[in-house]
Amino acid sequence: MAGEGRIDAFLVCGGKYHDFDFARLRLLQLLAEDERVRVKVAQHFHDVDLITASSFLVTYTCDVRPSEPEQRAIRQWVESGGRWLALHGTNCALDPPAAVGEGVYETPRVFPLWVDTLGSQFLSHPSMAPYEVTVAPGADGDALIAGIGAFKSGHEELYLMDVGPDIVPLLETRWSGRTRGFAEADWPDDDPRPVLYRRALGHGEVVYFTLGHCRGHWDMDAPPHDGARYPEVHRGSWEVPQFIEILRRGIAWGTS
Questions:
Q1: Cis link prior to 224 (omega < 30° from 0)?
Q2: Is the pTM of this model over 0.90?
Q3: N or C: at which end does the chain have fewer Cβ atoms within 10 angstroms?
Q4: Which of 60, 17, 25, 61 has the alpha carbon at shortest distance from 217?
């Protein structure tokens, strides 16, 4: 879709429980490495006409729930040839507990069309920690990961997801056990957990990368935390060279 001249991209970066200022800055810096790229930025999907007029969409959100018309428009855009680099919590809907230390987070099935377009929905994650990321069987020749090999993530949320049948895993990890703080807590099967995958749709494609958690002291401004100072600063895999290299390749894919 992109020609040799100007490339119009759209970045949606916003939501809950993450340092979106940090993620937005880093993504804009990476996008700016290609002088052809011009980026419009929003915290939501309301500007769907501008999104679908773009050549390339990048999203880094958490519990941002597009309306049904927005979902349909973006799906049609992908089917028509759009390329979408979806990061971290784009597939996440969270209903929080009433108070800190009471109850669990629910991950309601509130946007099935969105999930079908993306190829997955976040459901839970274990306590944050670095974990091993490996190349999925048969994927080592893919341009997004060729020559990178296995690596260890940063201090991350390991995403446990409901995954559709049409994804093509590129990177994965393994984890089984019981998570804390989520309604869907039991994950007894030692199945591969996708970390990076492709999902073709019509003439277009979604690339989904679950890594990229980040949080500062003042990013817990949604219930049940209500602005309480978070004691730690997390930069997750933003400090891992392989993560940044794959982001660069994802942007190059989206703008080619």
A1: yes
A2: yes
A3: C
A4: 17
